[in-house]
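SEQUENCE-TO-STRUCTURE ENTRY
===========================
What this section holds: a protein sequence and its matching fold, both as plain text.
Question of interest: how does this chain fold, as expressed in backbone structure tokens?
***
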Amino acid sequence: MGERSNTPSISVVGDRCCGCGACAAVCPVSCLAMEPDAIGFVHPSCGSGCIGCGKCAKACPVLTVGNRDEAASVDWAKARDNELRERSSSGAVFGLLAICILDKGGVVYGAAFTNGCREVQHVRIDRKNDLNLIMRSKYVQSSIGADIYQEVAHDLRGGLCVLFSGTACEIAAMRNYFRLKNVSSANVLLVEVVCHGTPAPGLWKIWIGYISSEIGDTVYATNFRDKITGWSNYSVRYGNPDDSGKLVNHEEDWYMKAFLSNASLRTSCLSCPSKRCCGSDITLGDFWGIEKHNPVLFDDLGVSAVICNTEKGKSALCEISDSLEMGDSSFEQVVSGNPSVVHSVDPYFKRNDFLNDIANGMTIQLLMAKWTFNESFTQRVRGKLSGLKHHLLDGNHR
């Protein structure tokens, strides 16, 4: 009898693919691989040997969506340690949660720059000295290899405490993987990072190459959220770990303008299926607008919005409460300043043209000349009206 041939169930996902890699990780015959497209976004590619088990579709957070997340508590929070806050994107809650897990002899997984700052990948951290690698926001899509899924499962089966951090789709993918692999999630803390969207890895590679040529040295470290100009008016720092590097206000940095204009984002980010249904224990984000609700708290070093979705999440927050200044808030207050908690973004009006230019090999210099991302008055008004519409629809959206 000849080899059985099937089409993997994941093939129907198409452009809705979020690139999490769970399908390839869960495949029992390893017939799936995550391959980059012309702008660096990875998608499942099928080789021979599919047995038609359907596990790939069951692992996919786009095709298998979880139950709605319920907010058990909502707080504002900031670390009492100002130095830790300065090294963090917002209020340093993630750093304190990670330190707590490491102090128990556990491990932490998160996104880190690799390959000389050319790529972002999820890595495993078991020492506090390495924690800085996975702190702060990375505005590039992170690659999660099958080995990371396997390591998380191995750590949990070995009785270790684990913190896994990621975007909503990555958390949902890990949840699905646990279920399909019969891995107990009792000892894992799933920390979701509020996501605006994931920019193209291919654009980042050519951009960081351009920046290296601009400063006359290889860039080995990037801080997208340098607070030397404040938390609310943050800057991007490019350079080496031991020097000051190149500092650019985020509103002037071309790469950031492409990101914040929603031009460089993955297609799946425009209709994210995982927001508020990924199964995270804690959702962390910037508490933008905190000065409107509680002006005394605003010192421009950063305040986190902390949404505990489970009792496990509440317990984890309680464990670090002595290291925090924190207080009650509401879901509505968080979303009013950070709508990405619940809403996908609207695409840049010529996004497809922009991405095609990247795919066709246009140089950064030509891209910058053609695409300035300086919004017209009409576009700004349209954006404000869209934001108002989302705000009015927030209501009971939990």
